[in-house]
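Homework help thread (please don't just give me the answer)

Our assignment gives two proteins as sequence + structure token strings and asks us to describe the second one. The first is just a warm-up. Here they are:
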Amino acid sequence: MAVLHYRELVAWQKAMDLVAEIYRITRSFPREELYGLTNQIRRAAVSVPSNIAEGQGRGAGSAFAQFLRIAKGSLQEVETQLLISERLGFVAEQEVSRIFDISQEVGRVILGLIRTCGEEK
């Protein structure tokens, strides 16, 4: 059965979970980071499900795969910014590890979708 709506995609659902977690942890970031790292990591996280949704809306094949690759890039951006946050002492190692687990699952599902589009990248 074909997916009729982006909200049916497991990748989108898991990416939405990731966004919620990123917003949760960034609430405790220092106030002076509101327009710096807090904003940057939130924007990157929001980009993941947004690109999945936009790509699905454009149809199957290479167009969808391109948006999925953009989502995967944003996911890696989130991971990098999460590690920066840990190094700066804004978030604990166990929180980073837990969110990385979510991120890696999102990445696996995105990669699976890319493969279903016939694009192995």
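The one we have to describe:
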Amino acid sequence: MIRTFLLALSLLASATWIQAQSQYPQSESGQTGNAASAQTTVQGCLQGSEGNYTLMADNGTTYQLQGDTSKFGEHVGHEVRITGSTMASSAGTPTSTQTAGTQQQPTLTVQELKHISKSCKSTSKQ
């Protein structure tokens, strides 16, 4: 009788644990906040210097670049195509190190860079 009770109790505990895991499949993803991540390819003008690079996309969006940017110096001012994971910035009030202009800037973690042209397309802001 005790064995049956312990077996039923362990099965109930296992079922509860499995149900909890299936409700929150990405709870251990390592992301903080409500930022979404997606694979994307963006083409635009590479700007910046020494580990602080941005990409001004052809549609006007500016991406902060992360990842292995060691070879980006030779492509500054060039048209490039970057493939990587995007993460939108969390909304909120800027910290002392943020400015209002960079608060909404999405981050692009670089996985691949392809050189397109030695000059950037001229972009006209309306």
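TA reply:
I won't write it for you, but here's a hint about the kind of observation we're looking for: Strands lie at 37-49, 52-57, 62-67, 79-87, 107-117.
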